[in-house]
Amino acid sequence: MMNQLEDTEKKKKISINDILDKLGVVIALVVLIVVMAVLSPDFLTVKNVFNILQQIAQIGIISVGMTFVILLGGIDLSVGSIIAFTGLIMALCMKAGMSVGLAILVGIILGAAIGFLNGILISKVKLQPFIATLGTMTMARGLAYTITNGQPVYSFSAGFKSFAGFIGVVPIPAIIMAVIFALGYYVLKYTKFGRYMYAIGGNRVASKLSGINVDKYEMLVYTISGICCAIAAIILTARLDSAVPVAGDGNELDAIAAVAIGGTSMTGGEGGIVGTLIGALIMGVIANGMNLLDVQQGPQRFAKGAIIILAVGIDVIRKKRTSK
């Protein structure tokens, strides 16, 4: 009886802490918006608000895949390189005369294949996620440079460039991002797949003993991450009207930062899509605000690193607090 009471109290404590953490992230976003609006009169204009949404679409989409990966207790360092490689392959396919739809399908299949390879290396070969995705990150980036000799591929059809266009004043990339976030939220909240993500991330051994095919879901999660990267590559390539081998460089850090800021535990089993969306918005507000204030790239990168350390540090402190 006492054990049941202790478990109930612990669950209540965790639930209250989760609410406070989410509220804290929302407050942080609001404070950032107010500060940036005071520092720059151009910040809260309608044009700039939609500009922020367009800018974060790419990171937001790959952050959805990264949320699944981190919930499972993993990490994916290959996302930036997958964006570069799939973007170049789609570009070369279109230049070879392939239709836009078919080229996009090839890119998505390729992204899924690289993600599936990550899953195989981690679940079957038993490589650590850091090592496996570090390897595929380097391989994909190397292939991106090799197939084009380091040269960009540019100038695409109007149909492809429309993926970076607008519907009225709303950027299409922001609409695509919203759809991806909605799908991610639904899967985690209302499906068996989502419940298994939390179970496996919370306790892998117990999940295996309860009959969950952990290896299968691990492969699926990394495949989803690869697909998200290919979708992000479509947006980036269409927006720039070019595909370059350096595309997506550093995007893995931005995605991890968005997920961590949003409250998803880096050890797995806790977090969600809504927090990731807020985290991506915070990253977008900071980057946009710094650009408006003419802050150089060096300080911006320093700020991103500090934010990651702060977010993970808060998660560690929170875990210690709830375990007492």
TrEMBL record:
Taxonomic classification: Bacteria, Bacillati, Bacillota, Clostridia, Eubacteriales
Major site of localization recorded for this protein: membrane
PANTHER family xrefs: ABC TRANSPORTER PERMEASE PROTEIN YPHD-RELATED, ABC TRANSPORTER PERMEASE PROTEIN YPHD-RELATED-RELATED
Transmembrane annotation, as ranges: 20-40, 52-72, 104-123, 130-148, 163-188, 219-238, 273-293
UniProt-recorded name of the protein: Ribose transport system permease protein RbsC
Keywords: Cell inner membrane, Cell membrane, Membrane, Transmembrane, Transmembrane helix, Transport
Localization: Cell membrane
GO molecular function, one term: transmembrane transporter activity
CDD domains in UniProt: TM_PBP1_transp_AraH_like
Membrane topology: Multi-pass membrane protein
Keyword Transmembrane helix belongs to the record: yes
InterPro entries assigned: ABC_transp_permease (IPR001851)
Organism encoding this protein: Clostridium ragsdalei P11
GO cellular component, one term: plasma membrane
Keyword presence, Transport: yes
